[in-house]
Amino acid sequence: MSFSSLVSDIAYRKDADRSDDRDDKRPQLSSGRSYASTAATSVSITGDIKSQLHGGYSHPLARSWQAERQLTKSMLIFPLFVSDQPDEETIIPALPNQHRRGLNKLVPYLRPLVEKGLRSVILFGVPLAPGAKDALGTSADDPKGPVIKAIRLLRRSFPDLFIVADVCLCEYTSHGHCGILRDDGSLNNALSIDRISDVAMAYAEAGAHCVAPSDMNDGRIRAIKLKLIEAGIAHQVVLMSYSAKFSGVLYGPFRDAAGSCPSFGDRRCYQLPPGGRGLARRAIVRDINEGADIIMVKPASQYLDIISDAKELGKDMPVAAYQVSGEYAMIHAAAKAGVFDLRAMAEEATQGILRAGASIVVSYFTPEFLDWLSEK
Ligand SMILES: [Zn+2]
């Protein structure tokens, strides 16, 4: 029996053949109108039956099954700006709902979030004390500095919280660049990676579960990995590389928050040009070969093709995406202007990032997602 005659056969059955306990809203075929509707169906399915897709995603649960990855709380890393002023709690005007916090404010703020299921944070140090910045970024690994003290405090206070430490010099250098400069103002790669790997080691030794160098200097992943091996702690520290970090205008609110704006020039010689897909692929391959455990792409929504490339090039590795301050601020601004609903856009943007290939999302929306994901 052909499929179309099977449909006709089913349609001509008596109504009495069907049980009366159907509880869905599907229309009951009556013999009176079944001929016309069946005929129409027969016409359409004599064409290409593969064109019949709607049934696969008509139910909300079936719709969710269409995604390869669903956001879970454990995929989220929440960025925190930790100030060297212990009692500080200052709202960051360009970043709605985000604060710079001193050590005394961190635990009370985080406790309810941890109780809601917060699994991971990434720490950015914000030195504000006079004289805290110099040409070498000396305060980056000061044992009394905000990041090292925050790592120890959070490890003690929240034993299950996974602590990521961003590793860079730009918050700590007087010139605001991500490394050590030559006299002509250009970046000295060799000195920079030596210094940055020392800073990464200091964070790892303080107890960070993961160190994440964001400076984009060539060779820093290898330098950090070798020092971790030498110190005998390589087996317990995740090395997450900001491999494909693009220059652009989406970091403005972050620089306000972290006070890391370069005092001269820009970061174009070490951050990637927005059109540089091939360069990003080479940077990803470089960092995989140097020993990175996780590849990160930053920003996220404007670089979904790069996230997809990272997943292809590092197919056996987790890929992280950083939805940066400008992306977050844009979503807030547009929602405030009535363009769309904040939650709907936050969810759609994150879904896009996961669909592209990320399984880790660094997101300022983390506190909201902890609530939203609990409602589902
Ligand atoms: Zn930097």
UniProtKB/TrEMBL annotation:
Domain of life: Eukaryota
Binding residue positions for 5-aminolevulinate 2: S325, Y364
Listed GO MF terms: porphobilinogen synthase activity; zinc ion binding
Active site: K245, K298
Keywords assigned: Heme biosynthesis, Lyase, Metal-binding, Porphyrin biosynthesis, Zinc
Composition skew (Basic and acidic residues), residue ranges: 14-27
Gene Ontology BP term (one): heme biosynthetic process
EC numbers: 4.2.1.24
Enzyme class: lyase
Region (Disordered): 14-35
Cofactor: Zn(2+)
Catalysed transformations (reactions): 2 5-aminolevulinate = porphobilinogen + 2 H2O + H(+)
Pfam families for this protein: ALAD
Residue positions binding Zn(2+): C168, C170, C178
CC terms in the record's Gene Ontology section: cytosol
Biological or metabolic pathway of the protein: Porphyrin-containing compound metabolism; protoporphyrin-IX biosynthesis; coproporphyrinogen-III from 5-aminolevulinate: step 1/4
Alphabetical list of InterPro entries matching this protein: ALAD, ALAD_AS, Aldolase_TIM
Binding site for 5-aminolevulinate 1: R255, R267
Coiled-coil ranges from the UniProt annotation: none
Family according to the record: Belongs to the ALAD family.
Subunit structure: Homooctamer.
Job description of the protein: Catalyzes an early step in the biosynthesis of tetrapyrroles. Binds two molecules of 5-aminolevulinate per subunit, each at a distinct site, and catalyzes their condensation to form porphobilinogen.
The protein's name in its UniProt record: Delta-aminolevulinic acid dehydratase
Species of the source: Karstenula rhodostoma CBS 690.94
